Every structure is written in C-alpha cells, then in structure tokens.
Amino acid sequence: MTSQTVQIPGYLTGTWAIDPVHSDISFVVRHLGVSKVRGHFGTFEGTIVTAENPLESTVTAKIDAGSIDTRNEQRDAHVRGEDFLDTEKFPELTFTSSGVRAHGEGFLVDGELSLHGVTKPVTLELEINGFGDGFEGSKVVGFSASTEINRREFGVTGGAAGAVVGDKITILLEIEAVKQG
Q: What pTM value is reported for the model?
C-alpha cells in the first residue's frame, strides 16, 4: 500500500467489467526483421476495481489464446499450434495486477502475465482516457495501455519459424469498461 494519492478528473470508484465489444487487445511483432505483423485477440474478459485511492486499484483479465486473429488463417493455425501459443495445452493468457504507480501524465500498472504456462512480471504503461456516461444511465471508463514482452522468456520459441519472427512483442490495449451495480 502507498500513502500517495492522485487526483483524476471525473474519477469514480467501483467495479467495472471490460466491454469486449468496445475494447481491443492487439499485438505487434517483427517478421523477417523488415516488417511488422499485427494481430488481435477476439475473446477476453476482465474486471477493474477503481479504489478510493486510485493507486490501490486492481485489474484482472483473461484472454482466450485460441481467439487470435492475424487476418491469415494459415498463420493463425500455426500460431495456435505447439510452435507458438500451444492453445490446446495453454488455452488462456491471464493478467493480475499487483500495484499501480503514478508516472508522468499517466500510470504504471505492475502485474503478473501468464502465457504459455509461464508467469512473469510485466508493467503496463497506462493512460486513463476518461470516465463518462454510457447507455441507459450506465457509467463507462476508458483506458489505453501497452507493454513489451520477450516471447522466449515465456517459452514461446516458434520452432523453425521462430528464426523469422522477432522476440519482442508489443501488446496494445484499448479498453472500455462498464460500471457494475
């Protein structure tokens, strides 16, 4: 726990469910060292709890690894296979936060990412896009976040294709969540 507090315009406390229809979880990885391939995960869920002190807020999220979409069915099947995500054996990616820190104009969210059977600490750079009114009187909040991981640290070697795929993967999150209750 920290004694530091921050002020955020329009800040609301509560429990928020990630709205998958208005959110996006994507990634970028180099291919052949000359281009970047982008992909998305289509199925995910998560809960954000905004605490009285924003620095005590938490987030948990779960991503269906098999919902990967790189706009190429053959590549998607390969990435779902044993060389990369091995979704039969490791069907989910999970994130659980362990702390929030103020950082410049935004925040850093520390947590544990579990991918391919390996759990490692990661830090998300977070921007709060705002709190507002949704449909039928609901409240909504928006966040943008990103982090960078090394796929090999999570045991994702890529098999023979691993030689043409970059080790560094940038993960990008555009999240809209709806206040519960």
A: 0.94
